Amino acid sequence: MAAAPKLALVTGAGSGIGKATALALLQAGYQVACGYNTSRSGAEAIRHPNARAVRIDIASRASIRRALAETRKAFRRDIDILVNNAALVQEKPFETLTDADWDRMLTVNLRGAFILAQETLPAMAKRKWGRIVNITSIGGQWGGMRQVHYAAAKAGLINLTHSLARLYSPRGITANAVAPGLVATDMIRKELKSKAGKQKAAQIPVGRIAEPEEIAAGVVYLVSDGAAYVTGQTLNINGGMLMS
């Protein structure tokens, strides 16, 4: 009897990189819980027998637990693969950032990934197999100008990835990060309208911004059996931006 397909949870699957990742995983033969908070229509538009839209507010542990319980009931298994993609972005001068801005950014972009990992890792450890992929950003590697709090949260996400890899790789669970540069999503299109955004785009060695599907391809690789020896790494998919 063939084993059931592994189950992935992708947060922020209603649009952009998350939606592209969910579709790529489905095409690769995985079952996918398509997490959404506000983009319900986008998540529900992913129509596939192995997909299910699940509402999840990653700022709330209670919401995360409800979503995981709903997913477990729908697919009759625990999460094998966690893709922490959902994120918040805000452009604002450093001098005008408020405590609330800072706290909200770290709650969504860092604490949410921590809670999801903490809630899903016990079942992975019991099965001695699991994959965690955290979608971070080039901003977490080189800092931010008008997104200092965003960059700080994404840098923390890279370090969380390293810590999880050290803790859980001996138990058959890999943890890796994917760091995109500029990607053709609604979030980035707004940034590209600014002078600083246009300057960044002009400096990409490849000469263009990425498509969401190109980021998704990196995720599919990292969750595959072929990447079983890859852990604690940050896969840079940025068209060469980090070296410029």
Q: What's the layout of helices and strands?
A:
Layout: E1 7-10, H1 16-27, E2 31-36, H2 40-44, E3 51-55, H3 61-75, E4 81-84, H4 99-127, E5 130-135, H5 139-142, H6 148-168, E6 173-180, H7 186-191, H8 195-202, H9 212-223, E7 234-237
Parallel strand pairs: 1-2, 1-4, 2-3, 4-5, 5-6, 6-7
Name its key features:
244 residues; alpha/beta; Rossmann fold; seven-stranded parallel beta sheet; 15% strand; globular
Can you list the strand order of the major beta sheet? Answer: 3-2-1-4-5-6-7
User: What's the end-to-end separation, in Å?
Assistant: 52 Å
What is the CATH level 1 assignment? Alpha Beta
The helical percent reads 40-55%
Summarize model confidence as the mean pLDDT: 94
Query: How many structural domains in the coordinates?
Result: 1
Main pleated-sheet profile:
7 strands, parallel
Rounded radius of gyration (Å): 17 Å
CATH topology: Rossmann fold
* Order of helix and strand elements from N to C terminus: EHEHEHEHEHHEHHHE
Number of helices: 9
The tally of strands reads 7
CATH superfamily membership: NAD(P)-binding Rossmann-like Domain
**CATH hierarchy: architecture:** 3-Layer(aba) Sandwich
Low-confidence segments, given as residue ranges, are: none
